[in-house]
Each structure stands twice: as C-alpha cells, then as structure tokens.
C-alpha cells in the first residue's frame, strides 16, 4: 500500500508541475506571484501556504524536515470561528506559521493519533518530521488537551515555538 501512495503522490507532483509549466508560458498576466486559492486557508491565514490533505501534509513535513501543524475546526462552530479570527490577526503567529507545514481540516481523518483524547474542535496538534504526533504539546485544559480558546493565543504561540525548538534538539 505504501508504494501505491508514493506512486500517486509522484503522479500528482508531475501533474502539478505540468500545470505550472503551462501557466509559465502566459506572459500577459500582470500578477507576478500566483494567488493561492483562499479556500485552502479557510480564513486561518490567506497569505500562508496550506496543504490540501493530511497525506500531502505528512509527505511535505517529512521531505522538508519542517514540523506540521494541524488545526481541526468546523465552519459553524463559534469556538472555531473565534479562534480563527485571533489566529489570523496575530502577526507573530502568522509569521511563525511560515516555518510549519500547515493543514486545517473540517473533517476527521482515519488516523486515530490525531484524536488522542477525542474528536472535538477546535483542536491543534503538532507532528514532527519523523511523523510522530507530539502529544506532549498541549493547551491548558485537562479535559481537552489540544483545545485553545481565543484567550490562549499566546500559549499557542509559545507551543509553536516549542514545536520548532524540539525539532532542533532532536534531529
């Protein structure tokens, strides 16, 4: 099964590069930097680069040696909306987020490691490039370890710093 997913990932990369090559031929566009579709960010940071799927995010994390930050949220959840707003408006977080592979999900994956203590939203988990879920990087609530409220935004920021620091000491 592993070979198959690598193969499809490889084919996907070829397909992407074909599309990019085709676009490069067009000289008449005024916009030099291609605008990323806002849909992938879902409002968590429109200028950041977001991955589309969990599989792609793992692949990119492993190959770039950057940690992965996964945000589980729901569009119609007021807690998710409130956290998204402070996350998107927090300049330092948006800057630091560039050092991560980023993924936000409005659905659950089949990977049980992403819900160590339940499938609630919003919850934010970090995964290191060895593809280990960092269950040790938690928020302040003992009943929902990976939940963050808008008032916890500075804790989330320091957890992001922690995820990057762990990387340096362990690799």
Automatic annotation (TrEMBL):
Gene3D superfamilies: Glutaredoxin. One of its GO terms (cellular component) is endoplasmic reticulum. It is found in: Endoplasmic reticulum; Secreted. Pfam families: Thioredoxin_7. Keywords: Endoplasmic reticulum, Secreted, Signal. Transmembrane segments: none annotated. InterPro entries: AGR/TXD (IPR051099), Thioredoxin-like_sf (IPR036249). Its main location: endoplasmic reticulum. GO terms for molecular function: dystroglycan binding. Residues 1-21 form the signal peptide. SUPFAM superfamilies: Thioredoxin-like. It comes from the Eukaryota. Belongs to the AGR family. This is Anterior gradient protein 2. It comes from Acanthisitta chloris (rifleman).
């Amino acid at each position: 099964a592993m070979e198959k997913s690598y193969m499809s990932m490889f084919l996907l990369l070829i397909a992407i590069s074909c599309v990019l090559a085709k676009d490069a031929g067009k000289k008449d566009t005024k916009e030099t930097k291609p605008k990323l579709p806002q849909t992938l960010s879902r409002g968590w940071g429109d200028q950041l680069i977001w991955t589309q799927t969990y599989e792609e995010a793992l692949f990119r994390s492993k190959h770039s040696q950057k940690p992965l930050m996964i945000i589980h949220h729901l569009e119609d959840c007021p807690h998710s909306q409130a956290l998204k707003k402070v996350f998107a408006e927090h300049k330092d977080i948006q800057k630091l987020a560039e050092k991560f592979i980023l993924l936000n999900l409005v659905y659950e994956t089949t990977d049980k490691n992403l819900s160590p203590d339940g499938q609630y939203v919003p919850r934010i988990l970090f995964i290191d490039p060895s593809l280990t879920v960092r269950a040790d990087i938690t928020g302040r609530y003992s009943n929902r370890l990976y939940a963050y409220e808008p008032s916890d935004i500075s804790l989330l920021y320091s957890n992001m710093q922690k995820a990057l620091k762990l990387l340096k000491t362990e690799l």
